[in-house]
Write a structure and sequence with these properties.
The protein has 101 residues and is mainly beta. The protein is built from one helix and eight strands, in the order ββββββαββ. The strands form two sheets. Strands 3, 4, 5, 6 and 7 form a five-stranded antiparallel sheet that branches.
Length: 101
């Protein structure tokens, strides 16, 4: 089961609800990344059923490495503690907000 955590920038107040690193549910494997196109923290699909990489299903695999917000492919791995994608300030880890499968 995956977890979502609220992160807040101590400088500009930007907030993101993401896993904070690599995480997985029953089907999807995600990695928190900074999308350079939309300048947001997002959980990007990186694998299937606990394994990184393609599943072999083209319909599923088309979303690997793609920002779920803007469909951009210019994403970089982010992990806690990390920089704010908006202002480069420090993101502060908050409470767990959601458990996902």
């Amino acid at each position: 089961m995956g977890t979502k955590i609220e992160f807040t920038c101590g400088t500009c107040g930007y907030r993101a609800e993401v896993s904070g690193g690599r995480d997985c549910g029953m089907v999807g494997v995600v990695q928190t990344m900074t999308c350079q196109s939309c300048r947001r923290l997002v959980d990007v699909l990186i694998g299937y059923q606990g394994k990184d990489g393609p599943s072999g299903n083209p319909d599923y695999d088309q979303d690997l490495g793609v920002c779920p917000r803007c469909s951009g492919k210019d994403v970089e791995i982010w992990s806690d503690p990390g920089a704010c994608p908006k202002c480069d300030g420090r993101m502060i880890k908050g409470e767990e907000t959601l458990l996902w499968d």
